[in-house]
Amino acid sequence: MSVADYTARTSVRLGGLVLFVLIAFGVALTFTDEIALERLVTFGFLSRSLEMATPIALAAVGGLYAEKSGVFNIGLEGFMIFGAFSAAATMYALGGTSPTQGHVWAALVAAVLVSVALTVLFAVLLIHFKADQIVAGLAVWFVGLGFAPFTAAVIWGSRSSPGLTSIDPIAFGQSPLILLTIGIVVASWVVLYRTRYGNWIQAAGENPEALDTAGIDVNRVRYATVIFSGAMAGLGGAVLLAHAGNFGGTGETMVDGRGWIGIVAYLFGNYNPIGAAAAALLFGALDMLNVQFQTVGIDLPSRLVNLLPYVAVIVVLTAWGKTRMPDAVGEPYESEE
Amino acid sequence: MLSATVLERIAIAIASTLSAILIGLVIVAVAGYNPVQFVNQLVVGSFGSERAIVRTLRYSTLFILTGVAVAVAFRAGVFNIGVQGQFIMGGFATVVSIVGIAPLLPENAVGGTILIAIGTLAAIVAGGLYAALPGVLKAYGGANEIITTIMLNFIAIGFVGWLVAGRFNDPEATATRTRQLPEYVELPSPIVSDPNFSLVGLLVMLATVAAVAVIMARTSFGYDMVTSGYQQSAAGYAGVDPKRMIVSTMTFSGVVAGLAGAVFVIMIQGYYTDPSGVGNYGFDAIAVSLLAANNPVGVVPAGLLFGGLESAGSHIQINSDVPVQLIDGIVGLVVLFVAVPELFRMIAKRTGLGGENR
Amino acid sequence: LGDEDEGNGNGSDDAATEVAIISSPAGFDDNAFNDNAVEGLEAASNDFDLSYTTIEETEEAQYESIQADAAESGYDLIVTVGDNHTDPMATNAEQYPDQNWMLINNMIDGADNVSGWIEMNNEMSFLAGVVAGAMTTEDFEHADSSTDPGESTVGFVGGEDIPLINAFEESYIEGVEWVNDDVEVLTGYGGSFSDTQAANDVAESQIDDGADIVWHAASAAGAGVFSAAQDNDRFAIGVDVDQSVTEEQYQDVILGSAVKALDEATYQVAEAVVDDDFESVVGEQNLSVDEGAIDFVVGQAVEGDLPDTVMDSLDEAITSFENDEIELTCGPTSC
Amino acid sequence: MTASQTTPAVRLEGITKRFGDVVANDSVDFTLEQGSIHALLGENGSGKTTLMSILYGLYDQNEGSISVDGHEQTFDSPRDAMEAGVGMIHQHFQLVPSMTVLQNVILGHEPVDNGLINDGAARGRIEDICSRYEFDVDQYLDTRVEELDLGAQQRVEIVKSLYRGADVLILDEPTAVLTPQEVERLMDVMADLREDGQSLIFISHKLDEALEIADQITVLRDGEAIGTVDTAETTEQDLAQMMVGREVLFDRLERESSTGDPVLEVDGLCMRGDRDRRQVDDIDLTLRSGEILGIAGVQGNGQSELVEGITGLRSVEEGTIRLAGDDITGMNRRRRIENGIAYIPEDRQSEGLVQDYSLVRNALLGNQTIAPYANGQILDWDEVSDHAAEIVEEYDVQPPNPDATAGSLSGGNQQKFIVGREIGHDPDVLVASHPTRGVDIGSVEFIHNRLIELREEGLGILVVSSKLEEIRKLSDRIAVMYEGEFIDVVDPDAVTEEDLGLLMAGHEPTNEPPQQSDPQPDGGGSRD
Ligand SMILES: Nc1ncnc2c1ncn2[C@@H]1O[C@H](COP(=O)(O)OP(=O)(O)OP(=O)(O)O)[C@@H](O)[C@H]1O
Ligand SMILES: Nc1ncnc2c1ncn2[C@@H]1O[C@H](COP(=O)(O)OP(=O)(O)OP(=O)(O)O)[C@@H](O)[C@H]1O
Ligand SMILES: [Mg+2]
Ligand SMILES: [Mg+2]
């Protein structure tokens, strides 16, 4: 069955990442005399890894839907920036500098709505006007990097928002958004592999003509997935914000490359939502491991260790590369009248 | 990209820019600033005075060089998003090699010239190698170059940043930076005397553009490259080894990016800092190249436009309180519009402008 | 040269004194260093017939040119933030001898038109360390948060791992150890001055590992440290300005802030220019404990609640600085 | 209304379809009777696919009407057509290779239960269909389509249409990609379907197939319906004349000079194909100057790989290749071009020409290191322009404008340009892969004559083609390739088409000696 097959390919790649994490551990442990493992792998470490992974996983799931249907949404990073910013703006508009938990949830919803509105425009450019997907996606990033901080500066007189509030944890100190993300990931998997829409999405990316001749409007499928990808990236940004509690718009903004990692995550996961989420979790763990190293005083050059996920991406892509992109990615589809 | 005639490309580039600026102005107005004044400052700030022009040319020199680097790769169908990283590696290599070798050479103009040559060579080698790496990984490992080059940008920033703060930090300086180039390592600056701009740098840039244009249009290598970009399968048929071509294209692109890094260091900065603070030339270059439809000659006007915008940005900073992020946003919009030639074709058709379709 | 058409400044209000301030590579809106310098000008603009313009330039290579551009625009005073401006200013101070310059974090030897301000970040960090080191063994509660006297561990969260911040870290550790040799200091870097979440993660990891007080030198990302303290019922210490005011949301967990009077410095220089008395501030100026320009301010919410032993340690440290009894390994900007 | 008593299954009246200036269908009338098979014949580009696409709702006609089962219909999309019971199996299969057979069959018509695909229901329905027509498709429902051979893929297509409830089935050139055995099998399937009351439209270029299976035949030429005839009342000759508009010669081309010394020698060649399967298995061949060696075979039996091995586009696993006595096995494609191996590629669209380049730029393709077009690395565009103009002139490329883009030319003209370019500078060996695929009759003759001329001039030519007439017309010897091996080498004058067909299907000829001629006319080049 193709599902099994996907999983098989995915696990090889994820296995690569796990290996990487283990090697990192090994290196760390050789550097230290008797740092207890329980100081390194704590409950907090696991939950921070999860928290780190959520925005990335959301963006990744969105991105893979779009790409599965034949549209490469390279603008995830930009949509995440917009998502984080609009969540912050909404929270501030509703509750000033001391928003309530209700406002946080409203902000999440608003961020999704704003992202959907923006992605509709983006999707029209991509699908109706056949924009070059790479270029338009990069443009979204540029636009996000420019206009989100600009608008922040107009609202707050500073590119960063004042401290707002972060979402309260539910059981075991875990954010409810982690649960939400898990729910979305699983639902995405079910939709992709167990419903007709999933079939259509896959067909739209692999052989749009086949779908067209089956009487399904290819571009409608693509509109749906691209808008979904924007919504998920926006939600990812908003989740990041809801965890952090304020918007940082200086430099590369608080999103700081998570959208790019999202793309990498779904490539690792071989376009499987669960695989993508697992990859996001591994990236999260790698990052948090670096933090743990510092905390327990394993003296690695943190600037270099911070580069590990990037190196991991390159190594694993090369060693187990050859992610098979859907055949029709990047090609606008024009039904014969 | 979609095929189009040169004239059409130019029309689209102009229309994109104007549309983006127009939207930018609306945003300026909505945000409560004066759009008329903004336009005025755009013009004055980019070409309104000798200082402004020199500043524009300084930015443009780098935008054009990095833009050409991007164009080379994109033309050949290889998406080198890593020009920023290659630019950083190149510039850093220039500093390290010049600072390292300077004590061995006489401290005069002759020594300076030799050092410039060595530094430039180092930059070219470093940029070329740093680009060849993702080329090799793509050709022989199947690793998508868009992703690997983006990763390599992060890695270049982190790695050079680490070296600048550590091994190569200038012990005399309080700020985080390398030692400075000796002051006799300096481009002669005829006519315009500006400490950060030299006509020689501009000429180097123009010569590079010309050389790249000639290579692309008039050599077998260029023909192989461009053909690969248009139609991989036909290039293979014509005897191009696609794997080698990917590597040579990336290397070529990286060489130009490295050269841009050398110009940056020798003409402008004179030392190396944390690379997160050397500007985003390599990223904006993607926009520059696309605006020029990846044509190396077209990169010159496109680079001038971006140089002008950047220069106007700095003028606007000094002379008004419009946040500079606006300029970045407008640049993003220019790129966005450039990506959608079809939009303008449609508008042209509707309005009866633009004449023939096709 | 210089056909600058419309003069200078924010056209509208025709103030007598025009000041420009050029950012450090980190840019404005850092809620710290750069913003602090701007605050002094803001105050000056309220008190005097003065207006100011902020010029953000994050590309260090442009400093020489943008300083000159600003000088060409005819400002009465140009303030530059960060020692990255040093070399370009050495050139421009000579090129524009009639221009008044203020350089923050460094000085230019022999230039008679530059007011160079060196802020003793090392001393400031030391004070933060003293308070953290003293507090961690105390039994202290405020609102939902408490210390853990059983465990003598404190934390430090840096933004980027660069020599400037390394100097903060080192001096902080020296401050902690000066109070109590047995306190363990956990240190870490988020890798960014803008990624609040990254700073938050580092702080949480340290709190997990026993830290009950965390100080940050992470600029805008530092907000993440406060929220980590808040979420885990621990405490944090602010930097540069009284962050219990600027980050009001986190007032409950901010024990206090190690501050430097950078705003006062810019205010003072601006005032001198207004009074036509720039010469009085030319040359090396110090923002140090000795001058009363480096201090530790107790947080708004815990005002008066801090244990006396802690306040005593702090006072003792300040006196020792005044008597030159403390030798720091690191300088103000690097070790 | 016609005189027939029953309502026709499909009736097209006055259908006209224009693509810009091209009139693809010119007021075509067409009637499909219930429960019958109706063949649609015509040369490439005569408008067959277009007409059927209109019936299937893919295109809107400019004029004319469609009725199905007596009801006039307007189809805006294939979905409409399917609802009316019209299904189409395309020339290029409309399958998603990476998806399973099951997913493909139910695509767009997934039975749903609580929002999820009801796997059981889908399987049940497919099994019903399969048992009714004795299909084997239900045996591999969970296999991915890309793992099936073409015949099986085609059956998936048919099941897909039936699953969607089609009672009118359009099969667009279904036999083009099949082996003779698979063709037989398809014919049986079609007959079964007819028996069961389905109405079928069968598109083909092949007269004999149409005559074998169809009840009626309609011939299209240049977008017009030339006529409809009952199968019983027509002959192959009549149909051919209708298709082409004049009499057609099936004869072998005359040749005068005899063959010379070996120019290309292949020894024990083994190669792997794309899926790492061994596609070329220990092939020996000798090509002499002034000889045309034809390689016949059903697609996918290793011809493409063999050609790529000789021309340097694919690496060789074992064996040697010698050009005029020199070992060139290790030489890359570039060097082989420079050493005189010219190549007319199988796929002119994607390999032979850069679609967006002008003819001038295309004239350089492959020649970019060869004097006089290149002087070292430096190109001489004037020379290239002259060369392009020469080709256009000499090969009658239409439109005669060297600055036109290759993509704007019709297939035949593209092919003529390639032929002109490839033999422009006296190669020693020409490898021509399907040299007339998709080319109109006029151009076919032109290209054939040109190849013979070149032969007479002493060139060694290797022709690969799946068209038997072409192979027979051109070749001095024919090697038949089956599963990576030369199953036999035969004399085209002696062999019959039936024998060739059997050989192509892998039947060793040995047990039928009387029909067989000496397989080694020139001594060399046969398989061991
Ligand atoms: N989408 C299209 N746009 C423009 N012209 C087209 C299009 N489709 C077909 N044509 C033209 O219409 C004519 C008829 O084409 P059609 O595909 O119907 O031929 P056909 O008889 O099916 O040929 P073949 O035997 O090669 O399949 C050709 O000249 C073709 O170029
Ligand atoms: N998809 C298409 N879009 C636009 N024009 C097309 C398309 N397909 C074919 N044409 C045009 O239709 C004309 C006929 O093209 P096509 O190759 O289908 O003809 P053909 O009948 O096969 O020609 P030939 O017999 O010479 O091979 C050409 O001018 C071609 O440019
Ligand atoms: Mg304690
Ligand atoms: Mg057809």
TrEMBL record, chain A:
GO terms for molecular function: transmembrane transporter activity. Pfam families: BPD_transp_2. Keywords: Cell membrane, Membrane, Transmembrane, Transmembrane helix. InterPro entries: ABC_transp_permease. The chain crosses the membrane at residues 12-31, 43-66, 78-98, 104-127, 134-156, 176-193, 223-243, 263-283, 304-321. Its main location: membrane. One of its GO terms (cellular component) is plasma membrane. It comes from the Archaea. It is found in: Cell membrane. It is a multi-pass membrane protein. PANTHER family: GUANOSINE ABC TRANSPORTER PERMEASE PROTEIN NUPQ, SUGAR ABC TRANSPORTER INTEGRAL MEMBRANE PROTEIN-RELATED. This is ABC transporter permease. It comes from Salinadaptatus halalkaliphilus. The lineage of its organism: Archaea, Methanobacteriati, Methanobacteriota, Stenosarchaea group, Halobacteria.
UniProtKB/TrEMBL annotation, chain B:
This is ABC transporter permease. CDD domains: TM_PBP1_transp_TpRbsC_like. The chain crosses the membrane at residues 12-36, 56-74, 86-105, 111-133, 145-165, 197-217, 252-272, 329-348. One of its GO terms (cellular component) is plasma membrane. It is found in: Cell membrane. One of its GO terms (molecular function) is transmembrane transporter activity. It comes from Salinadaptatus halalkaliphilus. Keywords: Cell membrane, Membrane, Transmembrane, Transmembrane helix. It is a multi-pass membrane protein. It comes from the Archaea.
UniProtKB/TrEMBL annotation, chain D:
The keyword 4Fe-4S does not apply. It comes from Salinadaptatus halalkaliphilus. This is ABC transporter ATP-binding protein. Pfam families: ABC_tran (PF00005). Residues 499-528 are annotated as: Disordered. Keywords: ATP-binding, Cell membrane, Membrane, Nucleotide-binding, Repeat, Translocase, Transport. GO terms for cellular component: plasma membrane. PANTHER family: CARBOHYDRATE TRANSPORT ATP-BINDING PROTEIN MG119-RELATED, GALACTOFURANOSE TRANSPORTER ATP-BINDING PROTEIN YTFR. It is found in: Cell membrane.
